[in-house]
Queue: 2 jobs
Job 1
Amino acid sequence: MDSVIISRSLFGSSLAFHIIFATLGVGIPFMILIVEILRKITGDEDYGVMAKRWTKGFAVLLGVAIPSGTIVGVQMNLLWPGFMELVGQTIALPFQIEIYAFFLEAIFMSIYVYAADRLSPNIRIITVFFVALGASASAVLITAANTFMNTPAGFTYENGEIIDVDPWAAFFNPSYVTSAIHVLLSALMTGAFAITSVAAYKLLKTRNKPREAIFHHKAFILSLIIGGIMSVGTAVNGHQAAQELHQYQPEKLAAAEGLFESQTNAPLVLGGFADPKTHTVKYGIEIPGMLSLLAGNSFDEYVRGLYEFPEENWPPLYTHTLFNIMVGIGTFLIFLVGFVFVVYFVRKKKGLPRWLFRLLVLVGPLSMLGIEAGWVFSCSGRQPWTVYHIQRVEDAATASANTMLLVLFLSLYLLLAIIVVIVLLAYFKRKPLANDLNNVKRKGLET
Ligand code: HEM
């Protein structure tokens, strides 16, 4: 296999694996912070039980997020030496600050995990606030590397030499702020919806255990509200991200929308498959003028199609499908949450039907699929460049990537994923919810 393909496959699969844990590592601490605050405001110890149980799950996920992130860091150096030479001189700043964010998270996480019971409610909230802050800051800082690759800035590139470097301009490159917000909001949404999924599943299973059902119902409603708010935020900000594609990465937008001819009144094509042979989108639903409107707030907006660019510089056309998956999932989740609250309102005390709970079990996995599709879209849509219009992928990759390594790492990730599931299931089986709820009752803390 070609060395560039092996490097891309190895790095891509490592990132795809790491991103699951990194995303939950941002979303779950935020949820723990919310329940700690609710516990303080309402005095309801169920929120304390949630904080305790979610923290255990989070600790296991963090145990994989840290080494898998380290693997990604090492692979960046080993698989992409050309790229590291370029970024080392330009975009090192956010990586350096990220080390501090990681320290912040790790130190306060240790305090929270080992001493939460001995802390006053206010100190507990402050502690978990810093855990959530450190985790979010890490994500927002690391995103700078990807945005720099999409919209490089802060240096001059002359005869293969990098000169006049301005690290802050490289950090705050044109797509940085919007992308950082997109990554953060989508992670908070996914963390919340992961909890919704578990709560919905448990509600289906605990019909004969009313006390446990009450607990799960609180977690369900809370996470659904937070997930719903974040999904609206993700979509609104995603619209801004798409407008920035129009401005700074027009080939990516053209491939995302399967637009070949440049035009005003450009159509938006929902679904379907962009066919590289016929240069059309097959089986899609076309909405006339909508792409121009979305990209530039006017039907007269001129949107550049792929024919304006040399074919060897086109991103792969499957990015149309990836973009549709991400946006489709985001839109579906917003409507689903809205629908759930309408059903609650209409059916009042009868609550939600079981088929809806079954559907809601899917919101966590669907959000994660959206995250994966978003990242693959952002990175594949930049092809054939590692750094947009500056460095091509083949100039960044090592010449000595090895197929054996790819097989070994894929097996390792599969094994790790299985172990994580087994550890989580075993832990929560050994520490049933009923025990935690009984402890609350014994201590006379129940409201
Ligand atoms: C609902 C409407 C949405 C729109 C219009 C939208 C738009 C975009 C755009 C234009 C990009 C590419 C940015 C770039 O390459 O420079 C992007 C990337 C991304 N999206 Fe979305 N998105 C939406 C929903 C979602 C949802 C629901 C998720 C997660 C569940 C998500 C997760 C991501 C991620 C992780 C990236 C890669 C990071 C980045 O480049 O910002 N997006 N999105």
Job 2
Amino acid sequence: MAIVLYQEAFDNSSRFKRRIEDERWIAFAQAAWPQTTIHGADPLRRGVRSGGMRAKGHQYLDRHHRPEIDSFYHLSKASIAGRACQGTACFVARHLDPQRWHDAASQSPRVYCLGKCYAAPASTAEEARPAIEIRCRQGIVLNRIVAGGARTLEAYTRQGGYQALEQALGQPPEKLVQRIEISGLRGLGGAGFPAGRKWRSVLEAPASQKFVVANFDEGDPGAYVDRFLVEDDPHCLIEAMIIAAYTVGAQKGWIYIRNEYPQAEAILRAALAEARRERLLGDHVLNREFSFDLEIHVGRGSYVCGEESALLNSLEGKRPDVRARPPFPAQHGLWGFPTLVHNVETLANIPWIIQHGGEAFQRLGFSRSRGNKVVSLNSLFERPGLYEVEFGVPVRHIVEDLGGGLKTGTLKGVIIGGPLAGIVPPHLLDTPLGFEELHAIHASVGHGGVIAFDEHTSIPDLVHHIFSFGAYESCGKCTPCRLGGRRVEQIFQHILDRGSAAPTEETEWVEILSALRLTSLCGLGTGLAEFAETVRLYYAKELERCFA
Ligand SMILES: Cc1cc2nc3c(=O)[nH]c(=O)nc-3n(C[C@H](O)[C@H](O)[C@H](O)COP(=O)(O)O)c2cc1C
Ligand code: SF4
């Protein structure tokens, strides 16, 4: 039986279609339609789609909507309109609006993080904007945003946009990779992996196709920098992805965007249409030999889809389990091809580095953390908002000088880099903001969310909240994460209900933490253990009372 499959994507402004010869797609189609000739996708379907297929006499089959996979996603069918947020920034601010928190905590499915942590406890109706400031020697990613933003192509080019792309297209890829290597830029999505090493791996991987993926899932409660980078400066992400694709030799890219950011999605779609109209995307980018196009994929409410290998499975239309590594996405990514996956903020640094040189970037920051980081402060601060700071500033500067301390209450701790990271207690606030420096005190830079909490949040309350989040979002592949997370949530529920837990439960929780640390396949499981480790280290007295 001859099989001809086409993958296609189209929106109101363009349509592209390419023949698929990947044997996994063919196997998928054969399983779906045994004994049938398969001849491609229906070109008349409306909206943006990819990965769909139609066989003669059969209905269109969309690889992204299959019941057994839909059930993985919390927001597969649910609308988020009118919903309140249940993320950690909203949890620690629940005393500010108990009714809203009650609504958030009692809704199903849960909604974790609307990117409005500066106004927590937040709901989708919240329209306020945070403070956005550059508080360092040299602004990089917030420059256009503090000057009023650049949502249109005209505004972006007026402020120097796409000059970096022109510059990059005139240079050999090797030179561009060297520039990124010299800069010392590290991934700002959480792992802090050197960007230059990743670019070189993808560039040097021999393959017929390569891909670039922007991770715009921004799932860490407390983080909202990517949201504003895209809403206020969407072309910067597009320009960075075109430069990255040209450098590593990719023909196609995806932006994986979080479902909870509908405004960012609309802005990005409009910007992509503008870029295609001006031949910045599509065949022969700016009349060069190089062709590249970008597609948007909207997530459906799963935190673990921010983990890069789960994200790739999600893009492929598979159940988004985390993949075992090696091989890493740079060698074996989307459909097995070398794939460059980067966080939005990491990518936002690229045009600046291309224009100003790797050395200029390298001169900023300190130690092994070069350049700047945007931190996002939650609503308990006197001045919540987004601040671009240079790596190396003490955490105290962020908390006291930028945030202005807490609006009310006494600072009990700061959770930096999302709920799956260690707490920085008040006596360690002089630790510099740096990957290794925070790691040394069992904390992390993560994606730069800074959630302060005060005496309204007890330690058992916080542990219960974080493990409840972890258990809800676990992909389920590792037993300690799938079952252990839920068990710790139960133990702390007992503590909250009865005032303390049995000594056997203390042994159990310590054993679960050890299993999480040693056997988890991804940062969700190890992050739960890291968080708990700092609770045991820095809040031992309060914890002792839980197991009395
Ligand atoms: C559970 C989990 C969730 C994650 N969520 C995100 C996310 O929402 N956005 C992101 O950029 N990286 C996230 N990451 C990190 C990614 O796996 C990956 O390291 C990152 O996208 C690589 O880009 P970077 O090198 O630019 O940081 C997550 C990791 C884990 C373990
Ligand atoms: S640690 Fe948890 S989320 Fe990560 S792969 Fe294992 S089960 Fe999945």
